[in-house]
Amino acid sequence: MAIDLAHLLSLKQQDQPFAYGDREVMLYALGIGMGADPLNADELRFVYENGLKVVPSFATVAAWGAGRMAESGINYLMVVHGEQRLRVHRPLPAEAQILADSAIVEAIDKGPSKGAILIHDTVLKDAKTGDKLVTLSSSIFARGDGGFGGPSEGGLTPHVIPARAPDQELEIATRPDQALIYRLSGDRNPLHSDPNFAAAAGFPRPILHGLCTYGICCRAVMQTYAGFDPSLLRSFDARFSAPVFPGEMISVQMWRDGDIVSFEARVAARDAVVIRNGRAELG
C-alpha cells in the first residue's frame, strides 16, 4: 500500500520523556569500543563514573525510539538508514531527564521502483530547563515505498571530501561481539545478532550497526583533533555506504580545514568504504 504524504508529515511528537544515567552512557561508550585498553586514561573517562564524560554521538541512542515513525506505513523489511546528522547545542550531561520533539520533515519520492527517502528530525531538550541539547536528523531510505506521488527532489546535501590525501588516519579494531554489546543501547534489530536472520537478509553473518560505526568515527575525530574533549564537537554528519562485520578493522581517514574535519571510514581488508561524506565541526 502506498504511503500517504499528508499522513507522514502529520506524525509529530512533542515532549516525549526519556531519562538516562551513567550506566547508559558507559554502556554506549563500551559499545563503540572505548575502554579496550583499561589503562588508557583518556578512554577511561568515558567508561568509568569518576568524572564521566559523554561521547557526543550518544545522543543517537539517548532517546531511542522517539517519534512516530512506526505509524508511517513504510515497509520496514526494506528500510536502510541512509544518513545521520547531529548538531550539539549543549554538551550532554552524564545523566539527565530529557524531552524529545520529533517529526518527519520531508519525504522524497524517487519512483515506484526506486523507493522513498524520509527525513526525520528529533530535538532533545533538558526536561528541567527546556534548553535544547542536540538536534538529530536522519535520512531513511524506504526501498519499497516509492511511487506515492511526493516531490522527487530534496533531502540532505552530502558533504564533499577534499581531493587530497588524508591528513590523518586512525585504525580502530572492532570486537567479534561488538554488535552484541552495542545493541544493548537500544537497537535490538536481529540483523545484528541472529545468524539465521542475517542469512535471510543476504549476509553471511550478523553485521555491525551503522550507528555503531558512526560512533566509532566520532571517537576517532574526537581523539585525533579534540584531545578526547567532547565539548569541542559542534556537529557530526555521515552517510552510510556499506556494512561492517564485527571483528573487522575500521580505518578512519580525516582531513582538517580550519574548524571542519572531513572523514571517511574503510575496511581495508575488503576494500570497502563504509562511511562517506563525513563532516565534523569543532568549536
Relevant terms:
283 residues; alpha+beta; Thiol Ester Dehydrase, Chain A; 2 domains; 10-stranded antiparallel β-sheet; 7 helices
Number of strands: 10
Listing every helix as H and every strand as E from the N terminus to the C terminus, the arrangement reads: HEHHHEEEEEHHHEEEE
Provide the CATH superfamily of the largest domain: Hotdog Thioesterase
Question: How many individual helices?
Answer: 7
Can you give the mean pLDDT? 95
Low-confidence runs (pLDDT<50, min 5 residues)?
Answer: none
Helix % is 10-25%
Task: Indicate the structural class.
Answer: alpha+beta
Structure in words:
A hairpin with a 3-residue loop joins strand 3 and strand 4. The chain contains 7 helices and 10 strands. The N and C termini lie far apart (46 Å). Helices cover 19% and strands 35% of the residues. The protein folds into 2 domains: 138 residues, Thiol Ester Dehydrase, Chain A; 115 residues, Roll (Thiol Ester Dehydrase, Chain A), CATH 3.10.129.10. It has 283 residues and is of the alpha+beta class. A 10-stranded antiparallel beta sheet has the order 1-3-4-5-2-7-10-9-8-6.
